[in-house]
Design brief:
The complex is a heterodimer. Chain A is α+β, with helices and mostly antiparallel strands. Chain A has one domain: Beta-grasp domain (Ubiquitin-like (UB roll), Roll). Helix content of chain A is 18%, strand content 25%. Chain A has two helices and five strands, in the order E-E-H-H-E-E-E. The longest helix of chain B is centred in the middle third of the chain and has 15 residues. By secondary structure, chain B is an alpha/beta fold. The chains are: A alpha+beta, B alpha/beta. Chains A and B meet through strand 3 and strand 5 of A and helix 7 of B.
């Protein structure tokens, strides 16, 4: 279950400046844990004290916002691309 | 005098120490947790919570430098307020701002109001929308930070403005828009010869792509890594209304809501003039307008939520069709705190709003303006605007850019022969025309 994860610039300090990393996971929550396992400290930036994604962060699976899918329980399949994008203003 | 880390991300990364000698801003700060940052090209609280960053000012310094007289003696553009804007040196001045504040008596009578004003940014320069304000500030700051290429994700107006002002400043420009935009907005960008990317997707998808491009290319994206500076330009819509009302605050404002940024920055503009003693404090109600086909902020407001559930836009009001509005929670908070409202209207009501404003005040606005007028009408009908309140409706764009929206709703001209008899016949017909059905109430 290789998942490609696009890392935004502000988080690349955790990933040794890599803008894209490959991880194993079956859903978004699992992916967040896998990220913490590989890059210690990154989870606290991504989620609040209750484990929920911070409200100014958007996560997309294959370009679809996970809030239109199953939020952090959204299933992942081999080859999926996950993009983490801080909220930006319009328009 | 705060040393600032200036980061050039265009072709290299370099750190230099500069002194913000002519500026009145001191850095950036997270709007959520307050964590401080240097005045570089960044937009989120990357050390703590990913909240949005905002500019921090030295209001004592501003108070010492400005007065009503000094502002009135300044240029008739946004740069008369330069002490309140996050730039260090000379601005890129394309004559942006100081647009008319019209006393809208005919529209007021139609709606049952007594003191209604239209702030008409549909005639803003150079590209006929309020975006010229934010882009003038963003590109001035981009130049100061060393960027030579600028970019944006846009629903149309921002693309127009970024391309035009980049052309004026001699900057490279690459902008991104959804591929289904109105032709006026596409042409109104291409004419300035930027690289224009029409993305097969909605605005939120364009925005996501641009965030990824920004990660890779290191350009100055006005609404991404320059956002803290860019968004400050909207404050001038607050300053101007105060000045044009004779240095007074209005009682109620109605403005369109897309990302929610404009709405909150008008409030910040009011607050800053109060803070430095340029205007007396009084309550001002803030009401926001959305299209039903993209109303995530109005839905959250109606349901008593303080968080936004994103939606997929489906409305003719493309310039405000942002399904995942970044400043939505702040807009909701502002409307609630000020006893205002947030409402949504149908596409037909938006068209009716465009026509109502045009027919009563001679102002042709785009769909965002039609949304504002339609919501204004709705709020009056629901008793949410007091007839005696001094109310300002913000018109943020020009109707000539979105003619498709009303093309099938304005009828056709009479084609006649160059003869008096032909005119007489047509005139007689015109007197009993169905146009009357558009406006059953006479002013």
């Amino acid at each position: 279950m290789a998942i490609q994860v696009l890392i935004p610039t502000p988080l690349q300090k955790f990933t040794s400046d890599q803008s894209s990393v490959e991880l194993e996971a079956t859903n978004v929550d699992g992916l967040l844990q896998a990220m913490e396992g590989r890059f210690p400290g990154i989870l606290a930036r991504l989620t609040d004290e209750n484990g929920k994604l911070r409200r100014f962060l958007n996560v997309y699976v294959n370009s679809e916002d996970i809030r239109f899918l199953d939020n952090q329980a959204t299933a992942l399949a081999d080859g999926d691309e996950v993009s983490i994008v801080p909220a930006v203003a319009g328009g | 005098m705060l040393p600032a880390l200036l980061v050039c991300r265009d072709s290299c990364f370099r750190a230099v120490t500069a002194t913000l000698s002519r500026s009145t801003f001191t850095g950036l700060r997270c709007k959520e947790c307050g964590h401080p940052y240097e005045a570089s090209a960044r937009h989120v609280c990357e050390d703590v919570c990913f909240g949005p960053l905002e500019v921090v000012y030295d209001y004592d310094a501003i108070r010492a430098r400005v007065s009503r007289a000094s502002i009135e003696a300044g240029p008739t553009s946004i740069w008369r307020y330069r002490e309140f804007l996050p730039i260090e040196g000379d601005p890129i001045d394309v004559g942006t701002g100081f647009t008319p504040l019209l006393k809208a008596n005919r529209l007021a009578r139609r709606l049952g109001l007594k003191n209604l004003y239209i702030k008409n940014d549909g005639v803003n320069m150079p590209t006929l929308s309020f975006k010229d304000r934010v882009v003038s500030v963003a590109l001035t700051r981009a130049r100061e930070l060393g960027f030579t290429t600028v970019s944006c994700a846009s629903t149309g107006n921002l693309a127009n403005s970024t391309a035009a002002i980049a052309a004026h400043a001699g900057m490279e420009c690459c902008v991104f828009i959804p591929s289904d935009l109105e032709m006026g907005k596409v042409l109104g960008t291409l004419i300035y010869n930027p690289t224009l990317m029409a993305v097969k997707g909605n605005y939120d998808q364009v925005n996501r792509l641009c965030s990824e491009v920004a990660n890779t290319y290191g350009w100055g994206f006005v609404n991404i890594n320059l956002r803290p500076y860019y968004s400050e330009g909207s404050k001038t819509l607050g300053y101007e209304v105060i000045e044009q009302l004779g240095w007074q605050l209005p009682d109620h404002i109605v403005a369109p809501l897309a990302s929610g940024s404009l709405f909150t920055k008008i409030r910040k503009g009011f607050d800053e003039f109060i803070k430095v003693g340029l205007v007396d404090e009084k309550p001002v109600r803030f009401s926001g307008a959305q299209a039903e086909g993209c109303s995530p902020i109005a839905q959250a407001f109606a349901e008593g939520r303080d968080f936004i559930t994103p939606v997929k836009p489906n409305t003719i009001a493309k310039s405000i069709a942002i399904g995942n509005p970044a400043d939505g929670p702040y807009a909701i908070d502002l409307a609630r705190r000020t006893n205002g409202s947030i409402a949504a209207v149908s596409d037909q009501e938006i068209i009716d709003g465009i026509k109502l404003l045009a027919e009563t005040e001679g102002v042709f606005t785009e769909t965002a303006g039609g949304t504002t007028i339609a919501v204004l009408k709705k709020l009056v009908e629901e008793g949410k605007i007091d007839p005696g309140e001094t109310t300002v409706a913000y018109i943020t764009g020009n109707g000539l850019k979105t003619t498709e929206a009303v093309a099938s709703s304005v009828g056709e001209p009479y084609t006649i022969e160059p003869q008096l008899a032909s005119f007489n016949a047509a005139w007689e017909r015109a007197q009993s025309l169905h146009r009357a059905s558009w406006e059953p109430i006479s002013v």
